Amino acid sequence: MPTKNTVELESVSKLYGSFAALRKVTAQFPVGQCCVILGENGAGKSTLLRVIAGLLHPTLGSVRVLDAPASQNVRERIGYLSHASMLYDELSALENLRYFSALNAGTEMMPAAEALRLVGLKAELERPVGQYSQGMRQRAALARVLLAQPDLLLLDEPFSNVDAASVEQMQRVLLTLRSRGCTILLTTHQPELTRPLADRYCHMRQGAIASWSEGSAA
Amino acid sequence: MKRLLWIAVPVTLALLVQGFREAIFVAPTEATMGNIQRIFYYHVTSAWMAFLMFFLSFCASVAYLMFRRSQPFRAEAADAFALATAELGVVFCSVVLISGPLWARPVWGIWWTWDERLTSTLMLWLIYVSYLLLRRFSAGAQSYTLAAVLSVFGFLDVPIVYMSTRWWRTQHPAPVIGGGPNSGLDPSMWPAVWWNLAAWFAWGMVLLTLRYQLERKRQREAQEAALHALESDLALGSQER
Amino acid sequence: MSYARIVWAHLCKDLRLEWRSKDAINGMLFFSLLVVVLFSFAFDPTTAVSRQIAGGILWVALLFATVTALNQTWTRELRNSVLDAQRMAPAAPSALFLAKVLANFFFVTAVQVILAPVFIIFYNLHALGQGWLLWIVLPLGTLALVINGTFFGALSLRTRNRELLLPLILFPISIPAVLAMVEATTAILTGEYDPGLWIRLLAGYDVIFTTISLLLFATVLHAE
Asked: Is A4 exposed, middle or buried (0-12, 13-18, 19+ CB in 10 A)?
């Protein structure tokens, strides 16, 4: 029986020495919703996503993701994407995706060519990812996340420096995912790009959640 | 704790004086080596203390690795202990490496020889200096974990180092003056050894306590500063709203 | 079985990356060549002496060369934050480590294959002991360098001055291994004593450090 919330944060703090990157963040992110996290640089958006992804261990507080404590292994059901492509520059998109598919042995994976087609890239493209434009690279990065057909998608500035056509393509993919019940958490500096997606906006300031507001997508 | 130190420091000083008296004035002059042999009382006790410190550091590192997730605050204490013991170990090991050649020059006629004990002590010193360097070059909780891992590697390396240098010397017939002063110590010399061991053990423990507390204080201050920042800025934030 | 397949996927990726960029192997090859040449100026390599010192020079050259390559292999994972993707992948972290060790082993061996003839010519060498034993000593020694090197490469990856730090922590730990490989090689080249003891030491060193590296790699990878 699935819970209503994909992510539950209970007074989560992350301290770096005497600097608090996250301060007592308590929040729930319901299944199938897209929440856009807004805030200035250093407001703790990226840290929040990395804590949820399990890449950072919170100093205080508890994180439950997909009905499991963060220490438990639910990583294959989480897709994490940052503004870096997380792909090898020397390999082509298809080679990159095939490689990452191979690491998820035992789980049902989307074929690499299929994932590339979804984000509007040609699988036959032989060029290494390093020679792609930023928009194409970001779409390839999104394709990598799609492979595992995740239940939770964490996107850290996915649209930064991406051309308009690529943004539109990525939005289409994300909308399809959301309609299938995938929970999406997204940070951005450009809220206007997320208007078609956002169910809710979460405003962060100085490592804490300052306020919430409703999105237009609902 | 502070009161304990008030007792420990004078006791340690008294022990050091007594150890000095035993080593320099009471213990008989060695027949062949003469007065220079008296370095031995400091050299050997430092060596034992160095090994003890490195062993404690290894134990603390393992404890840190085991508890860093489940009990982060206790683990930090283990890390502070690992750091304090490693630093003291390096200090004692340096004493060994300096006092050794001072003794060897008049007795063996050479400052240094690549014999098994000298070589493995030097390796030990190098490994723990690299441990301290790693701690300098990395920051935050990451540094604790990485240092603890290196400490485990270093400690496991010690027996291998010892065996390899031992085989190395037996392979190469070289003019090593064998035995060393440890072979057959005259009974009249033992009191000086024990007094000095007690004295330097006490000295080491006092320094260890101080260093450990200093590191704990640093950790606690960082924690408190962070928690303070956590609370105060939240309040500030709500006022603005 | 699936573990082996994951290791294979990592290994193919590393070999392919190296094949496309050739950063590590070129640097390593030229570097070790330079060391060999420099040492032959420093120590006059007449035949009588050369047998005594060749083992040492060979391994010191390889040790330095390995360090230059090891920095490359992990920096690659840091670029574009691929390391985050690796940490998120459900595959066992030790598979990543094992594959990197194998890949680095392959690179260093390739360098040895190219370097060996140069070495024999420069130092006018032929083994007086049992030459075939070199076929055991070389892989064992390379493995010892590469295991610790790869592990400490990962360990120093997120520290300041990582390129400086790697040799500083790698060399002290590797000293017994270096001693064993140099002694074994010298024993074989001069034929004056039996290298068996040193080969066993090297094998033991490899087993011990492979085990603890595999056990502790996840800790190092997820250290924050």
From this structure: exposed
Contacts across the B-C interface (CB distance below 8 Å): 98
For residue B80, the number of C-alpha atoms closer than 13 Å in the C-beta half-sphere is 19
Q: In what order do the strands lie in the sheet with A78-81?
A: A78-81, A152-156, A183-187, A34-39, A200-205, A208-214
Chain segment A78-117, per-residue pLDDT in tens: 889 988 889 999 899 999 999 998 888 767 788 888 889 9
pLDDT digits (tens, 9 = 90+) for B205-240: 989 989 999 989 988 888 788 778 777 655 544 443
AA identity, residue C40: S
Residues 24-83 of C with CB under 8 A from A: 76, 79-82
pLDDT of res. A72: 60
Give the gap in angstroms from C-alpha C21 to the nearest C-alpha of chain B. Answer: 29
Percent of chain B with pLDDT over 90: 23
Q: Does B230 touch chain A (CB under 8 A)?
A: yes
Specify the pairing of strand A200-205 against strand A208-214.
antiparallel
Q: How far apart are CA A100 and CA A129, in angstroms?
A: 14
ipTM of the complex: 0.85
Exposure b/e, C142-159, CB count within 10 A at least 16 = b: bbbbbbbbbbbbbbbbbb
Q: Is B241 in contact with A210 (Cβ distance < 8 A)?
A: yes
Helix, strand and coil content of chain B, in percent to the nearest 5, comes to 85, 0, 15
